[in-house]
Give the backbone structure.
Amino acid sequence: GGTGSQGIRGIQGVKGDKGDTRHCSNCPPAIGGVFPFIIVQSNGTDDSQTWQRAVDSAFVNHKPIYAVGNTLFSRGVVVPKNIQNLVIFGGGGEMRAINSTPFTFFAKPLPASVAEAEQVYTFSFIRIQDIIFKGNGQKQIGLDLYAGGGHTYEKILGYSMKSVINLMFSMNARVVSCEAINSVYGFLCISGMGFEEFQGIPNATSSNSSPNKLTFWNCRVVGAPDQSSKYGFVVTDASGVSINDPILEGHYFSVSGIY
């Protein structure tokens, strides 16, 4: 008999995401569609840009971010002012500053006015949990995501930080089982007027930008052995703020454990 015809060549597979981005916003494939969350993994040198890409992706697709292992930061991540949904699961991994440059790991840019802050106030749903922030020389801030309602921060530990969590002009936020160790400030709940070296919002007053109905549950602050810790909890110009079952220990707070 004659020779059979040549078989049809198979379809070439789709090229995967470039590996050096170290984050994946639409993979791996899953039944029913693309993978439902964003993955961040360290490149071993500096993961600041990787995290920036991940937050930028979440701004567009509203997917939660999962960190795999420890990650390294030389600078902070800029969170869009009008982000609607930011959910980060740290998996108990470290986010470590690799230099002594002052920066905030995750921060919204400061608004130009109280009116601008009010425009984005109702847009954001934020939940961040299971993270260990490690500062370098008490120069860094963990989280500073102003003007939001219903934010939840759970099991976040900050070590050798300027401050761990700043709640400026916030409402109905929950801070649960978080810790500040060997830091200058622990947790701040303040109005848009700012506090000491923390810059405020232009034209803010104690009445037009006050924090309301915030709750701290089972949070712990440990003073630094070199007596560099100034405050454990700071609450100013606020109403309806409760600090439940706090733990203050370690060494001397130069101003106040709870202010």
Remarks:
- The radius of gyration is 22 Å.
- Residues 13-21, 27-33 have pLDDT under 50 and may be disordered.
- The first strand starts at residue 23 and ends at 24.
